[in-house]
Specification:
- The complex is a heterodimer of chains A (111) and B (116).
- Chain A has strands spanning 3-7, 10-14, 19-26, 33-38, 44-50, 56-58, 64-68, 73-78, 87-95, 98-101, 105-110.
- Chain A is mainly β and 111 residues long.
- In chain A, β9 (87-95) and β10 (98-101) form a beta hairpin.
- Classes of the chains: A mainly beta (111), B mainly beta (116).
- Chains A and B meet through β5 and β10 of A and β5, β11 and β12 of B.
């Protein structure tokens, strides 16, 4: 069965520090993977996606993620956190026509 | 493009009343999804349509929930009768499915439903 696991429901980082949000997946077929961000009182917004090809994927707002098949991971990173990055982040896996979402990680930015 | 449009943005109703949520997907997208988000259960897929046809409604909680997509530019999610436990944020999302793979889903701003 295909699934997505996000490690840590809450992550806190200082402004200017590295952001690392962890995501592991389980899939019997080559996966399509996504990261979404949800700001307060808004819908989910696509940050980036991996389909095929280059394993390092760059997204909006300076975020990037690396697909590592050997580790079944798709962690999200940003070199320097900004206060505006405070939000909830969802890792997701495509299955047929549907997307399976992880439970989300709330990112807190400390001044 | 205006993105996915949902209405109303907020709905407060009393238990037993009928509630209708509306969604206009992005023009040209061929799939539409309805989700429900709560603190307790997270993001749940209720139903999705492809080319206006319901493909999977296994996430619909019970018979009180129904969804329609009469054309490519409009969908409704109806709850009748509504109950307090239906209180949640309901999201509509659309996407374009092509042979090459998914492009990702684009979400509307959501409808916050409160059933008293």
């Amino acid at each position: 069965a295909q699934s997505v696991t996000q490690l840590g429901s809450h992550v806190s980082v200082s402004e200017g520090a590295l952001v690392l949000l962890r995501c592991n997946y389980s899939s019997s077929v080559p996966p399509y993977l996504f990261w979404y961000v949800q700001y307060p009182n808004q819908g989910l917004q696509l940050l980036l996606k991996y389909t095929t090809g280059a394993t390092l994927v760059k997204g909006i707002n300076g975020f990037e993620a690396e697909f590592k098949k050997s580790e079944t991971s798709f962690h999200l990173t940003k070199p320097s956190a900004h206060m505006s990055d405070a939000a909830e982040y969802f890792c997701a896996l495509n299955r047929d026509d549907k997307i399976i979402f992880g439970k989300g990680t709330r990112l807190h930015i400390l001044p | 493009d205006a993105g996915v449009i949902q209405s109303p943005r907020h709905e407060v109703t009393e238990m037993g009343q009928e509630v209708t949520l509306r969604c206009k997907p992005i023009s040209g997208h061929n799939s539409l999804f309805w989700y429900r988000q709560t603190m307790m259960r997270g993001l749940e897929l209720l139903i999705y349509f492809n080319n206006n046809v319901p493909i999977d409604d296994s996430g619909m909680p019970e018979d009180r929930f129904s969804a329609k997509m009469p054309n490519a530019s409009f969908s409704t999610l109806k709850i009748q009768p509504s109950e307090p436990r239906d209180s949640a944020v309901y999201f509509c999302a659309s996407s374009l499915l092509v042979v090459q793979g998914p492009w990702g889903q684009f979400f509307g701003p959501g409808t916050r439903l409160t059933v008293l």
